[in-house]
Amino acid sequence: MHAHISDRLRQHGAKPTAQRLALARVIFERPQHLSADDLFRAALAAGIRVSKATVYNTLNLFAECGLVREVNVDGSRLYYDSTTRPHHHFFNVDTGELIDIPEHAVRLAEMPELPPGTESAGVEMVVKVRKRRS
Ligand SMILES: [Zn+2]
Q1: Could you tell me the residue range of the domain that residue 99 belongs to?
Q2: 3 state SS of 34
Q3: How many domains does the chain have?
Q4: 116 C-alpha vs ligand 1 centroid, how far in Å?
């Protein structure tokens, strides 16, 4: 597992320092969506001594390298997704929870014409949900 994660970092061009490896083990423990604060708390709980700045820098680097995917929910809340293949999300506005929607579960009937000189870099849908009000 340890070797696997350091290989993965190297393959994506991220030098596997001890702190990056420790954080990567938390992130890739299971499929999950983490804010920087979530990861900081999880790291402390796992006994990893790391600063908040290192958590932010590491997440930024991992996102740049394609190791995690940034999910920007409403412009103020940024989550990091350990699942990098294309998929969509439910976002619970009451709880802040993100839930995966498989890519094939969403079918777009029609796409608008792309602006001239551009190509699609992917379509990501966030379906906002809240507790039903009766
Ligand atoms: Zn996801």
Answers
A1: 85-129
A2: strand
A3: 2
A4: 30
Who's near 100: CB < 8 A, 6+ residues apart?
31, 83, 87, 88, 89
- The alpha carbon torsion through 74, 19, 41, 9 (nearest 10 deg) reads 40
**CA-to-CA separations, 49 to 18, 22, 24, 59, 132, in angstroms, rounded:** 11, 9, 14, 16, 41
What's the mean pLDDT when you consider all of the chain?
Answer: 93
Predicted local distance difference test score (pLDDT) of residue 77 = 83
Report the pLDDT value the prediction gives residue 2, as an integer from 0 to 100: 57
- pLDDT score of 3: 65
134 part of a folded domain:
no
| Ligand 1 centroid – CA 24 distance (Å) | 17
In this structure, which residues have their CB less than 5 angstroms from ion ligand 1?
Answer: 81, 83, 100
Q: What's the confidence (pLDDT) of residue 75?
A: 75
- Which residues in the chain land under pLDDT 50? none
